[in-house]
Amino acid sequence: MTDPAPTETAPSDVLEPLAARFLRRPAATTIPPEADGIVRAMPVVLRLERPPAPRTPVLEAAAAAALAVCLDPRAQPGGEWHDAVATWVGGRIRKIARRARGAHWAAVQELPGVTCEVDGAEARALLPGPVDDVPRTVSRLQIGGTDLEPDDPGPLPAGRPVIWVNVDLKMTVGKAAAQVGHASMLYAAALRLTAVPEFAVREVGGAQWAQLCDQVKRGEAVSVRDAGFTEVAPGTITCIATG
């Protein structure tokens, strides 16, 4: 973390709408449009220098950063970020991942948000807002065009929650970054977390993915069902979080 982290006693009510919408009504896959008609998203900027950091720590940093914005004291009731974060969480929690390096990465640090670092990989989640009113510093960053090859992150660290990504979907690193960000938020909402844990991310498929889906059916894990705007069909389970 390179920005102020939430304390263990910080309130997490900002995530309550997620628990109500996704966890208490897991069969509901259709989310109504925003009440005011404004489409909002959280920009998640991935630092991809030359050469870039490996794929897994980039995704782990993205998962932590997205949740860190929500649990930041500034996002809690009375905080300067609360209205922006609460309004976004009450909608479709879209995230748009972009990539940056060098001076562009440095410029992004000046915008409201939280940067997280994992094993040399960095991601910064910014304050969510209308998609048609993005700062020039962000809008000039590319969304696609770069991907990261699969890596070997090694054995799972003991005691960490794990975000499992469906490798069979062949999601780009940007798409996967947005999905693990959804997963970290849903996991935190389910457990009413008040601080950001150290997430491990692993990409799996086949029989292991089927077993994870069974855990979801039994209420033992939290799943992310994509809205289907990009890359995958609506209702596709992209990530599963276990702890």
List strands and helices in order, with pairings:
Elements: H1 16-23, E1 40-47, H2 55-71, H3 82-89, E2 94-100, H4 102-108, E3 113-118, E4 121-126, E5 129-130, H5 136-139, E6 162-166, H6 173-191, E7 200-204, H7 206-217, E8 222-225, E9 237-242
Parallel strand pairs: 1-2, 6-7
Antiparallel strand pairs: 1-4, 1-5, 3-4, 6-9, 8-9
Helix pairs in contact: 1-6, 2-6
Structural features:
single chain; 243 residues; alpha+beta; five-stranded mixed β-sheet; four-stranded mixed β-sheet; 7 helices; 31% helix; globular; disordered N terminus
Structural overview:
There is one protein chain. With 243 residues, this protein is of the alpha+beta class. Helices cover 31% and strands 20% of the residues. The protein has helices at residues 16-23, 55-71, 82-89, 102-108, 136-139, 173-191, 206-217, and strands at 40-47, 94-100, 113-118, 121-126, 129-130, 162-166, 200-204, 222-225, 237-242. The strands form two sheets. Strands 1, 2, 3, 4 and 5 form a five-stranded mixed beta sheet that branches. The chain has a four-stranded mixed beta sheet with strand order 7-6-9-8, sandwiched between helices. β6 (162-166), α6 (173-191) and β7 (200-204) form a beta-alpha-beta unit. α1 crosses α6 (173-191) and α2 (55-71) crosses α6. The two termini are 21 Å apart. The relative contact order is 0.20. The model is unreliable at 1-11 (pLDDT under 50).
